[in-house]
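Re: the 753-residue chain
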Amino acid sequence: MKKTFHLDGLDCANCAAKLERAVGALEIIKTVTVDFMTKKLILEAADDQFDAAFEQATAVITKIEPDVAVLTEKKASKANKHAYKKHMHAHEHGGENCEGCNGCSCEVHDHDEHASHSHDLDEDDHNPESGSTGDSYLRTQMIRIVGTGIIMAAAMIMSSDMMLITELLMYLIAYLFIGGDILWKAVKNIFRGKVFDENFLMSIATVGAFFIGEYPEGVAVMLFYQIGELFQHYAVNRSRKSIAGLMDIRPDYANVLIDGEIVTGSPEDVEIGDIIVVKAGEKIPLDGKVVEGSSTIDTSALTGESMPREAQTGSEVLSGCINLTGVLNIEVTKEFGESTVSKILDLVENASSKKANAENFITKFAKYYTPVVVIIAALLAVIPPLLFGGVWNDWIYRALSFLVVSCPCALVISIPLGFFGGIGGASKHGVLIKGSNYLEALADTQLVVFDKTGTLTKGKFSVTQINSVGISDKELLELAAYAEAYSNHPISLSIKAAYDKAIDNSRVSDVEELAGYGVKAVVDGKTVLAGNAKLMETNNIAFNAVSVGGTVVHLAVNGVYGGCVIISDEIKPDAKQAIAALKAIGVKKTVMLTGDSRLVGESVAKELGLDEVYTELLPADKVEQMEQLLTQKTGKGKLAFVGDGINDAPVLARADIGIAMGGLGSDAAIEAADIVIMTDEPSRIATAMKISRKTLGIVKQNIVFALVIKVLVLVLVGFGMSTMWEAVFADVGVSVIAILNSMRALGTKKKLK
């Protein structure tokens, strides 16, 4: 069992890493993710042990971070759902009246209930980013920063004419004004056993500066630290708002049509088959089919497409889109938990649970970096004066400067922020990436393998030719339509569409799907085989080979060849552009796997400019071919497979990166995939790869920049060639620059060069 909780009051990236390590060390826990960016705790344990696991995890979190509260949402029960519908039905008929209601329609909204399992805390007390509290935090910080600057400037100007005690008093006032809260947190944390946190380190460094008479530097370090905190809150808040914008696709309510009256309620309470009414300007709350009305629909939140789509009676529509013009009556085809919007929300919210190698490296690095630097600082303060006659004040000053540089915040915050921004930027383009590990892997892709039907071609087939042998074309098409009567495969649907008559199911019996071959059925007492050439060969039926650029469905009646139906598919408009774009960004090889005939497969591959094509493959053959292609990779390069059908799920799962095409594609393919392209445009794959490479470039820049600067300043401080001012830059300055650099991943433009 895996569940997600909210960590209220989690305002420290390094603390999040510590919580993840501590909770992950519990034997009862299978996996755990503590995400600072989204303030999420994702916990996995055995079903029968989950409650105990949650209690243990909460106890650990409370011990390490008492100011962090673990919040969970209580879902409405099935009983409430049915009670709601029964109540609303009765109310609309006037049979029962809601107390306090006078009108004939009543709105019922289910509000999420939150319960704290560690502390009963008000979120605003701990979350400077929330609501008007965020403005209050900003004003308070600005007043403190400006006030401290004024007091400090006055002290520096007047110091020559002031007594030492007066100068100390002014600097002390400035210090407490800007750093009193940090000092108090450090004192509280000492009693909790938290020694190596940023509050303690910053307090020791600045208080130590006062003790050796470096008053201005003691105040300046705390001042710039608070400025850095302000920038950090701004950057993280902006990133969270960006993801919150993606979350804005969540519908707030659904208008259900019950006996001619509209009842407004929660989308979770609507059932399959219900009719919902969506007015102009409203979000479509659930997936369904339009049964009345026509309108234009804004799908940009899901697909990244700027142009609205037309919807009319019979059109399938997705939850999360916005109805722009007319009123639509929609028959619900999926419950909210299975709807497109619900799946997207789940993907985005849980993307942080799958971390990239760079994130795992930083987590391990932070675990050892701070203690090592603190130990070196302690040795630096003591050993030279004791053993080599060094001046105590000089070496203590160097040690204090070491402490300033010992916080790994620049990396701990900026690296996840970069990946967070990359995933958010990709979502704006209609590309859902299930984790930063997949974003990282996508940047190293050197081999892209495509399915054909529905991926590179539209998957919309039409009968273009009928070649009958011994029977009429009309009879051949009729037999084919009846043989395919129970199949929803695109080819089957095209044959039935060409027949264009109602199917009398009583005429069909003993239907048998033959995966990779076709179908066998008894029609009017005759055994009919309909499928590809391999089906004819397997049953020893002599047939006429056909050389056409389309799919050929051969038919045999009672073991005698009856002819073939030729069906053509259309290549997607941007498929050729997609292959060219992949090659332009350095993908070494593009390959197509298809169950279609050699003639059709090679014709499509040649038109699109693919490097290789493998045809007439059964589902098992595709997996086998994928295994062979995986052995052709070089170095750390990755293989990505792109598909959309339910039979693509095994191949999607086997590839290094599985990419599912189309929000309307198979649920099984989307579940098995690591990346979901919400449109039917293969060109979005190159866009996703560009975003991944840009993001990974930003992450690498931050790692190299932060490590080089920190190591350089530590060396210079150790040799007495640098002061606490440079140490402040190595901590706060590097953090701010790295965070601002990470924010570039959020600003991914619609058109990438």
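DSSP finds 23 helices and 27 strands in the chain.
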